[in-house]
Amino acid sequence: MNTKNIAYSVLELAFVSQGSSVATTFKNSLDLAQRVEDLGYTRFWLAEHHNTISIASSATSLLIGNIAEGTKKIKVGSGGIMLPNHSPLIVAEQFGTLGTLYPDRIDLGLGRAPGTDQITAHAIRSDRMHAVQNFQGEIEAIQQYFSEDNKHAQVRATVAEGVNVPIYILGSSTDSAHLAAKLGLPYAFASHFATSQLFDALEIYRREFQPSQYLDKPYTIAGINVIAAETDAEAEENFTSLIRMFLGVLTGKRELLQPPSEMTDDFMMLQHNPSVKDMLRYCFVGRKEAVKKQLERFLEQTGVDEIIAVSNFHGHEDRIKSYEILAEIMEEINQK
């Protein structure tokens, strides 16, 4: 018997497919947000990446505004803003503005990774390593800017004071689990690509959690990859685009998201490469029944409060279909 209603959300990287364009990618992102809003998804988060030809979500806060403007009720936010790339004051001003324009709909997910290579990270913010080492202090600075108590401070983000923009801590290792627990903030783990420390991070966060003015008990979100289709064969074919993407990450080969191809022996061998296999551990691929079985096992093992799904398809309508199937699965799971 399922004792809690598990939320389900979307993580959008704004992937640029081979043969498409950045403009079309942005149009498709908005269309996806409008579709999943109607399907009952809780939130639509956009990631921050830089200097990557296949990912167009570099100006994350601008895309959040575009998605929020084109939707009505779904929560829209960052998954995440890579805080060492930015001044806390600017982040507070941007998200305070978004939170004022779209009340009670904006989330601020914060991570400490660069979201790019080190050379580009230095070009974004030359003192970022100091910010990495002071991640807690930078988060607390943002919280202060959002506080109504900051109105007497010498430096203010006046558009943010008193605005409701919940902060989420993102992590891909155990480091941020300690911090999220210490600050009493919700915690999202990037298990859609960083799989090895998921259970350790969840255990640390739950064990060390300290209630705060923001949250009275732990709240966990886990990232997963979902490639669902009408048939297993169709899903596996679409899965080849994701396999090639992960291989590109590991080899440093930068290319647009490639069209699917037949699941050949070479692709099967790639899946069993130790590094690729580890990154693909929480990829749920197949027809509805197969994905549901995999997802139920994941939810039972992790006990997370929410899943946030990445579905990187070359074809937009195929991606829409996958999210439709996932919504059906989650409705069935939550009705148990």
Can you characterise this structure?
The protein has 336 residues and is α/β, with parallel strands linked by helices. It has a single domain (7-230, 299-334), classed as TIM Barrel. The protein contains 13 helices and nine strands. Strands 1-2-3-4-5-6-7-9 form an eight-stranded parallel barrel, surrounded by seven helices. Helix 3 (88-101) packs across helix 6 (135-146) and helix 7 (175-183) packs parallel to helix 8. It is globular.
Which labels suit this protein?
alpha/beta
Assembly state here? single chain
Number of helices: 13
Please give the share of residues in helix.
40-55%
- The CATH topology turns out to be TIM Barrel
Order of helices and strands: EHEHEHEHHHEHEHEHHHEHEH
Please identify, by name, the CATH architecture.
Alpha-Beta Barrel
Largest beta-sheet characterization: 8 strands, parallel, barrel
Name of the top-level CATH class:
Alpha Beta
- Work out the radius of gyration: 19 Å
Strand-helix topology:
Blueprint: E1 7-12, H1 22-38, E2 43-46, H2 60-69, E3 75-82, H3 88-101, E4 106-111, H4 118-124, H5 128-133, H6 135-146, E5 167-171, H7 175-183, E6 187-189, H8 198-208, E7 220-228, H9 232-251, H10 265-271, H11 274-279, E8 283-286, H12 288-302, E9 306-310, H13 316-334
Helix pairs in contact: 1-13, 3-6, 7-8, 12-13
